[in-house]
Design brief:
Helix content: 10-25%
EC number: 3.4.21.26
Strand content: 25-35%
Distance between the termini: 53 Å
CATH superfamily of one domain: Alpha/Beta hydrolase fold, catalytic domain
Keywords: Hydrolase, Protease, Serine protease
Structural class: alpha+beta
InterPro entries: AB_hydrolase_fold, Pept_S9_AS, Pept_S9A_N, Peptidase_S9_cat, Peptidase_S9A, Prolyl_oligopep/macrocyclase
Protein name: prolyl oligopeptidase
Catalytic activity: Hydrolysis of Pro-|-Xaa >> Ala-|-Xaa in oligopeptides
CATH class of one domain: Alpha Beta
Radius of gyration: 30 Å
CATH architecture of one domain: 3-Layer(aba) Sandwich
Amino acid sequence: MATSLHQQNGNIFHPILIQSPISQPMMLTWTRPITAIERINRGIAFLRNFTAAHFSTRHLVKQRQPRLSYLRNVRKKPTNSRSLPRYLSTSSSMGSISAVDELLVYPSARRDESVVDNYHGTLIADPYRWLEDPDSEETKEFVEKQVKLTDSVLKSCETRDKLRDKLTELYDFPKYDAPFRAGDKYFYFHNTGLQPQKVLYIQDSLDGEPEVLLDPNTLSDDGTVALSMYSVSEEAKYLAYGVSSSGSDWVTIKVMRIEDKIVEPDTVSWVKFSSISWTHDGNGFFYSRYPAPEDGEKLDAGTETNANLHHELYYHFLGTDQSEDILCWNDPHNPKQTRTASVTEDGKYVLLYTFENCDPVNKFYYCDILALPNGLEGYKGKKELLPFIKLVDSFDACYESVANDDTVFTFRTNKDAPKYKLVRVDLKEPNSWSEVLKESEKDVLESAVVVSGNKMVVNYLSDVKNVLQLRDLKTGSLLHHLPIGIGSVSEISARRKDSIIFIGFTSFLTPGIIYVCDLEAEIPDMRTFRETVVPGFDRTEFEVKQVFVPSKDGTLIPMFIVAKKDICLDGSHPSLLYGYGGFNINITPYFTVSGVMIARHLDTILCVANIRGGGEYGEEWHKAGALAKKQNCFDDFISAAEYLVSAGYTHPKKLCIEGGSNGGLLVGACINQRPDLFGCALAHVGVMDMLRFHKFTIGHAWTSDYGCSENEEEFQWLIKYSPLHNVRRPWDESPETTTQYPSTMLLTADHDDRVVPLHSLKLLATMQYVLCTSLEKSPQTNPIIGRIESKAGHGAGRPTQKMIDEAADRYGFMSKMLDAPWSKVPANHLKRCSKVPLFSEGSDEHYVDQKITGEGENEAEMQLQDFLDLLALKCNPREGRRWARYDDLQKSFGKTTGLVTIPSLLSYIRIHYLQQVECWNQASYKTFKFLSLWVT
């Protein structure tokens, strides 16, 4: 069976998973043929009469070294409010001016002051406990009122519809996953563009005609039924596939006969946190499930909140009712444990992985299914469990099988190796382990995939970037480096008996490349098999840098910054900072459409902070942000935000933070601890009630990272940062300031049975009461709203249109709150004809379109600051600084960072200054118009 990161292997289990982040941007470059410049040069004479104090290098279409020393010095100079131009300098406090057009009237929510819990002698009120019941009429009424409030706010967000239209345009491109092989067939997933769900295709060969095998879009009218897992039998005779509805984690498994695409009557229900693994005889498959809930078929699966307990391993025989499935393993004495299984590639063993929680540790058992006297059939109708042998029977480390040669197994493990290593053991001598590939001093061993007999592709994470090597399975020795760009390996698809491997790659500026490599070649060549192309996207418009920011305790935290090239560090840019920091999960470079859009059209700088708690540097990095050290996550994220401000990328009023799931907790904690540092906050499906999270669905598995309030010591950790219990009025603590909470959107969904909606609902009610409705005239004028989606869950399986709508809503909200307006006529929207050189300065050459056409040209906008910067480019700096101090422009057009239309700006210049400029004429007027459009 193919090994692919997008398949269900059963080797890795994360009961709490991150949502996909933000999106990242790309770049625009133009070809530049040389043509006549006489008309352009006459315009330069006019421009030399004006100048400005600062120049932003982001306006250059192209520059070749050397750059002007004046510009170089400005760009490198650290920025703070005192060093900014007068028209950009602002106070560091959040202020009390509402970002919405009028003060919001929040719906009232009943407070039940009688609900008080005693935690080890400390009394904690929980007045919104009633919101924990999703089926109560009172909860439904609360949700309905919040939805109406949020809709009213979003309708006032001017960029929302433009964002939705642009997202729809940008999402409409073909998307492919890497092919995988089963039997003698190839399979792959493909979305033509705006299909709600991706479609599974089959073909006889890589250049054969593909056929649709399974189209999930036919399973529902609105695209909310998604394919959540799948597995093809050894000879490619059957496809077992799991579907989930409305984003719930509950899965129902069906079986299709591949040859004629007939769906068999088999139905396997109440599956969750499972793999599907066929035995090689094709008679059936292993899977994991929970007991059916009490309400059974009447239950709207995914809306319940009761704890998930008693996870069990079963085997389903094809053509039989689920009631006849054999129970292979359970542990009634440890109801919180979860387990999953996989069949080895040689078909001899079934491997059982048991997890106690979300820590990267597991027990490892195996069963020789070929040696069973009567096979698996011998267990039908019996209560006897399979005779698993316990190779590892403690939760002291992670053991993940990489390959086996009969009884000799190779494992990836973190046993005495927080960055992981490869070890080997013969099942006949279970106490004799040997090291195959030792732990790296710096890099984390993420995976090893065996291919072409005894070769393995080893995937390392080096400073949050993937590195691939080809090594010998037997000795661990290095054979070749497999070159890839700076980014992430998104999937690896291969079989041991094949020499061909497929590798998926992505980065902030790479939508997706699938490489194919024949490892039998003397020097393996990474060839591009497919490359994703997003129409209108040019990666050269942007640049990516990685910085290392000192946290509160001095630990260096890596952070990626994606921005338009040569931006001026003047603190004026809207910025979006994303983080996660938990459960040993890495946030590596990735591409998303929404990031491209907001970077291009809202001029947003995109940042990803790889804070502690994740797995970017191994298990030690993870543990440094968990349990008693969880505060390190928040300190790291706050330090990253402070760096963006101090380095001149942005200003607190222009900074938005975003995170989902554990990242939602991150956002909630940080706005409590530093409300002055952020202008906007987007918290998706966050864990907000840190005292009760373990009581709902799979929350008990998260105690490995958080602890549990039932333990007194751990309660003391949790109460200090729990978002729900630390909402404070900042103006009470500092009466002399006007600090308030940032504009906040809490996002959740009615079928999220991972982090149930009650977390966001209780925090929403608390924030609105403490900050807004409990005071007659509250200083909190920044809105606090909740986006509560229907027929959606924690994020997986969400159809394309729902993703577009949510991104338009949250970034439309961000745009308004940060005062980040839409650029009406971005450069790539204008129909560009021939180009002419604008001017030359030494080896610097700059070009501008000779002719610009297209709708909306007369409504093109630019910032006054951009206008001043443009003048500074080629004009006398001293005279320009004196001229820029005049208040004429600001009085006529408002603040310098606002937008004005090009025609109105040109008219103003002609009326007030044209008479003083002898060289001004119609030709130079046109030249200036080209310059202005070039800037935008």
